[in-house]
Design brief:
The protein is α/β, with parallel strands linked by helices and about 170 residues long. The protein is built from 5 helices and 7 strands. Strand 4, helix 2 and strand 5 form a beta-alpha-beta unit. It is globular, with a radius of gyration of 16 Å. It is found in: Mitochondrion matrix.
Length: about 170
């Protein structure tokens, strides 16, 4: 029986099919009234966690999202995909727009410790800012080893040794 618990970070982003418009003052992109969805790479992370649960290697999957109240939709999507429960770290809209990878990594590290998870899944990058930093920063803050290159080739017999898993 599986005893591993997994935390999966899921980010709310502007849907990849939406045509992006720049704000008139050139300070960013228009987000009001624009369709948002789960970052596609975060979807892959959820799918990988669910696959491990189906193989009885993981007993619980917790989806977490940081941002405005609309992030609850992203968590509900993760729950529909197979996550067992969700955590929403609410950050008001204006603050959420300036949230950087290090701030998210700090939140994820605290949640990983609080929830006593064994695995942390993240998408390899976000399609809105194209960053690939949060996973590595989280691993550093937790002092956990990570798998960031070829997670699908990771030997599942070593799963108990791996503390951070980053999907591609």
């Amino acid at each position: 029986m599986a005893e591993l618990r997994a935390l999966v970070a899921v980010k709310r982003v502007i849907d990849f099919a939406v045509k992006i418009r720049v704000k008139p003052d050139k300070s960013g992109v228009v987000t009001d009234g624009v369709k948002h969805s789960m970052n596609p790479f975060c979807e892959i992370a959820v799918e990988e966690a669910v696959r491990l649960k189906e193989k009885k290697l993981v007993k619980e999957i917790i989806a977490v999202s940081c941002g405005p109240s609309q992030c609850q939709e992203t968590i509900r999507t993760a729950l529909a995909m197979g996550a067992d429960r969700g955590i929403h770290v609410e950050i008001p809209g204006a603050q959420a727009e300036s949230l950087g990878p290090l701030q998210v990594a700090r939140v994820l590290a605290k949640l990983a410790e609080k929830e006593k998870v064994d695995l942390l899944f993240l998408g390899k990058q976000a399609i809105d800012d194209d960053c690939n930093q949060t996973g590595q920063m989280t691993a550093g803050l937790l002092d956990w080893p990570q798998e960031a290159k070829q997670p699908f080739l990771l030997d599942l017999s070593d799963l108990g040794q791996c503390k951070l898993w980053i999907s591609v």
